[in-house]
Amino acid sequence: MKRLIFFFFIKDCMSEKEGAPSIFLREATGLVRDLDALDVLIIVFSAINLGGILTSGIFEAPYLFPGSNMVAIWFIGLLPAVGYLLVYLTLGLLMPRSGGDYVFVSRVLGPAFGFVWVWIALLYQTTGIGGFAFSLSWSGLSTTLAVLGVIFKSNTFLELSKTVSTIPVGPILSTGFIILAFLITVFGTRVYRKTMKILFIVSTLGLLICLGSLLVSNNSIFSSNLKAYLPEGVDYSTIIKLAKQNGYSPVGDVFVQNLMAGLAIAWVSYTGFWNMVYVGGEVRNFRKTLPTIMLFSLFGTALFSAFTSFLAQNTFGYDFIGAFQYLYFNAPSYYPLSIPPTGLFLLVSIVQNPIFVLFVSISLMIWNFMFLPIYFLIYSRAFFAVAFDRLFPSKLAEVNERFNSPINALIVTALVIEVYNLAYWVWGPMAAMVNFSIAFPIAFALTGLSAVLLPFLKKSYFDQLPSSLKTKILGIPLVSIAGAWMMVFSLILASAAAFSLPGAFYGIGIAVILTISAYTSGFLIYYFIKWYRAREGIDITLAFKEIPPE
Q: Global pTM?
């Protein structure tokens, strides 16, 4: 893949000898402002993945951070989120262009740092997206079929659940999900908009059914329903007792556990509420839409997560949620069920109606799938923006006249994601990640640094902000404080990832070496491109003295 990009770059440089170079690739991007507020809302909630929060996020605290408060952690997780919100709100209003962080960082810190940001995204964030495609088949579809097999007492579903999570069927299916996401985005925003709205409506209905079921259920109903899935002599209280006998304790240091759960579970669940900035050049009335959607999505997600966590705790019980998972991961010989301890299973066990069970299972799978086309859209725009500034081959900035879509950028995005998807199937989920969780938070620290320095390095930009965003506290601009806040929490997340690495695959030493190598290679490649462009008579630094054209 890297050789392919390099080949196109060299070819691109050679072709420019034929004409006089200009600052940008062309006078206008060619992208069309075709997205409205609802489209942006779908982008944000799909990136946050409300379905994933319902089936996973709200159930993680009792096991991972025993003693933490399932409701309080969602508000603790807002602490780092507020800094990110102010940073992306400010930079998004100043530079409403497609490309997101790349545009912000490159215009404030300079093109070298902007290029490195995208290079890290290419190497690491696409790893996570490839992993998501992998997990759709390996765990998502597999678990869904297993749950349906138990509920409908169908051996066919149970056998299929094993088949879709193994080679060769698994990789074929996950590749199919990638191709489907590519097709949804490649035919332009009109096809994308219609498809995503249909998927969003279906998946939201499933979410509402789950919410309604939680509202009318209680612990007594769940305990009774659970017996149908357990072997003779095992019930609700037995699971809790077995877990405690094998080392599980639902009690911990409340302050520490709440803080850690808020940062690790709640905050990570919120990530994505700013992703609309990546398509800023394609959104109608973007400056008006940005603050409304960003505030609504962040605080709306917090309230939704806290409320559903409260209902889940009342229905399933705090001790049971933790014990259920503890037995599976720590004492598997005592785990009494034939399917993993997923939130999906807990939810469908109270839905009961077979038609609703099937619909809920499909709708929650759709929530997980929608993550793919959203990130196809986001990262293809980042690659497009880099190419428009002449740091990637110009082919990646071409826009198809019929579909108004950057087809080549989407193809590269799809190919990179597919490579990582196959790597997961060959080497396993942990080994194939190559620890993107350390390198990528550091990239966000660069965005935070851009916000810190904005009022000082780009005063002309800063002066364009509305007065509310030019507020100063003790003489320090609010955006600089928010940027420093973002930097601190990004580095905390990177450190937390570094010290929680699975030793069976790589230790912190290897992870640090990989991270340093990735950043170093990014800077080296940038300076090579700068040198090569200079040979063609193009000073690429000129483009970064102004915001890209629309």
A: 0.85
